[in-house]
Write a structure and sequence with these properties.
This protein is mainly beta. Helices cover 6% and strands 34% of the residues. Strands 16, 18, 19, 21, 22 and 23 form a six-stranded mixed beta sheet that branches. Strands 4-14-13-8-11 form a five-stranded mixed beta sheet, with no helix packed on it. The chain has a four-stranded antiparallel beta sheet with strand order 6-12-9-10, with no helix packed on it.
Length: 394
C-alpha cells in the first residue's frame, strides 16, 4: 500500500507541472509558421506606348507555402496579427513597381479580386506595415484594394489547413483614387497568385506543372515535386480520371501506378501523354519508418499545340514602321541560334498572334519562313485592314 501511495503522488506532481507550462509567444514570419522565406515579387507596370497594363510574377522561386504555427507557439491576442491565430499563413508575395510609370491624374493602381479558392483569407500588409485589416472580401471587406505604390506584402491565411493548392485571381487596373472605379481608355490585366498549404509536412508538394496548369506536351515533362519531410521514396500515380488516381494504391495493375522512386529522383517522365488531354497525378511519400503518406491529387492539361514563343501579350514585341518611303515595306526578322524543327510530332500549322492600331494605314501583312538551306515560303493575310484592329488576331 505504501508503494502505491508514492506512485500516485508522483503522477499528480507530473500533472501539476504540465498544467503550469507556458506557450511561446511569437510574431509572424514571411514564410508562415516560424519560417524565413524569400520574397516573391509581383511587378506592376504600365506601358503607355502600348497602352497596356502588365503584372509579372517571379516564377523562379518555389510556390509560396502557407504554414501554421508549431504546437506550443502562439500569437499575442493583443496584437493585430492575432487574426492569424489557428491558421496557416504566408506573406511572401510582394506587390512592387515593375518599372517606372506615371499614374493618370486622380488615379491609382487598384487590384480587384475576381475569384479565389474557398476559405482563403487576405489581410492588408504585415506586421512591419501596420496591417492585418481584412481585404479582398475577407470578413465582408471590399473586393477592391488600392495598391499604395510601394513594396507591400499582404498576408494570406486559411483556417483548418489541409494539404492543397490555393489560388486567387485579380484584375489590375487604373481606377479613381477614391472610389476605385476604372478610368476609361486605359488597359487592365489579370493575374493569378498560387499558394500551397502544407497541412502535413510529410506530403509531397510544389508540383510542376503547377496545379491546374496548361502546357504543351514538351513543357509538361518531366513531372516534378518537392519531397515531403522524412521521405526516402516516392510512389507515382498518373491517369485521366481524378477518382481513379485518388483511390489507386501500389497494387494497381491498370497503369495508374507508375512505380516507386528513390528520394533524390523527385521527377517522372511519362511517355504516353496525349495532346488535348487533362491528367491527374499523385505522389505518395514513403517515410523512413516505411509509413506511406498519401499525397494530394494534382491536375494539368496538355495543350493541342506546341509553343514557339508565348509571352501571353505581356512582353510581345512593339513594332513601329513607316512604309511611305523606299523600299515601301517593313520587315522584322527572328533567327534562332539553334535550328528549330517545326515539323516534329507531325506538326502541320504555325499560328502567329498579332494586333494592330487604329492609326495604321491598311497594308498587306505576311509571314515568311526560311530554313537553313535558304528555301522559303510566304503566307499573306487576306484582309489588309487587319493592321488597324486593336484586338488580338491569329
Amino acid at each position: 500500500m505504501k508503494e502505491r501511495q508514492i506512485l500516485l503522488i508522483a503522477i499528480l506532481s507530473v500533472a501539476v507541472v504540465a498544467a503550469c507550462s507556458f506557450a511561446r509567444t511569437v510574431t509572424p514570419m514571411i514564410g508562415g509558421g516560424q519560417v524565413s522565406a524569400p520574397m516573391v515579387h509581383v511587378g506592376v507596370f504600365y506601358d503607355y506606348a502600348e497602352n497596356r497594363m502588365s503584372v509579372d510574377v517571379d516564377t523562379s522561386l518555389p510556390m509560396p507555402a502557407m504554414r501554421p504555427l508549431a504546437p506550443g507557439d502562439e500569437f499575442d491576442p493583443a496584437q493585430p496579427w492575432s487574426v492569424l491565430s489557428g491558421k496557416a499563413y504566408d506573406f511572401q508575395y510582394g506587390w512592387i513597381a515593375g518599372g517606372y510609370f506615371v499614374l493618370p491624374e486622380g488615379a491609382a493602381v487598384w487590384v480587384e479580386l475576381l475569384s479565389q479558392s474557398p476559405g482563403l483569407e487576405t489581410y492588408r500588409g504585415n506586421k512591419d506595415k501596420g496591417g492585418y485589416l481584412p481585404i479582398f472580401g475577407t470578413a465582408g471587406s471590399s473586393l477592391r484594394w488600392k495598391w499604395p505604390g510601394v513594396m507591400t506584402h499582404n498576408t494570406y491565411a486559411v483556417r483548418n489547413p489541409a494539404d492543397m493548392i490555393y489560388s486567387a485571381t485579380y484584375r489590375v487596373y487604373f481606377g479613381d483614387s477614391l472610389t476605385g472605379d476604372p478610368v476609361p481608355a486605359y488597359d487592365c490585366t489579370t493575374v493569378t497568385l498560387w499558394l500551397a498549404v502544407r497541412g502535413d509536412p510529410r506530403r509531397a508538394w510544389d508540383p510542376k506543372p503547377s496545379q491546374g496548369a496548361s502546357s504543351d506536351a514538351e513543357e509538361s515533362v518531366p513531372l516534378t515535386w518537392r519531397p515531403g519531410d522524412n521521405a526516402v521514396q516516392h510512389d507515382v500515380y498518373l491517369g485521366t480520371d481524378a477518382n481513379t488516381v485518388a483511390s489507386a494504391d501500389a497494387s494497381d495493375t491498370t497503369g495508374i501506378y507508375r512505380g516507386r522512386q528513390v528520394i533524390d529522383a523527385n521527377s517522372y517522365v511519362p511517355e504516353d501523354l496525349e495532346w488535348g488531354q487533362t491528367y491527374y497525378w499523385r505522389i505518395d511519400e514513403i517515410d523512413k519508418d516505411r509509413t506511406v503518406v498519401k499525397g494530394t491529387v494534382w491536375r494539368f492539361t496538355v495543350t493541342d499545340f506546341l509553343v514557339v514563343d508565348d509571352p501571353t501579350g505581356k512582353q510581345s514585341m512593339s513594332w513601329t514602321y513607316d512604309n511611305t518611303t523606299t523600299p515601301f515595306y517593313s520587315e522584322v526578322c527572328r533567327e534562332w541560334a539553334t535550328p528549330q524543327d517545326w515539323s516534329r510530332q507531325a506538326i502541320k500549322t504555325l499560328s502567329v498572334w498579332f494586333r494592330g492600331h487604329h492609326d495604321n494605314g491598311s497594308g498587306m501583312l505576311y509571314v515568311v519562313l526560311q530554313d537553313a538551306t535558304g528555301a522559303s515560303a510566304a503566307i499573306h493575310y487576306a484582309d489588309p485592314s487587319v493592321v488597324t484592329l486593336e484586338s488580338w488576331w491569329q
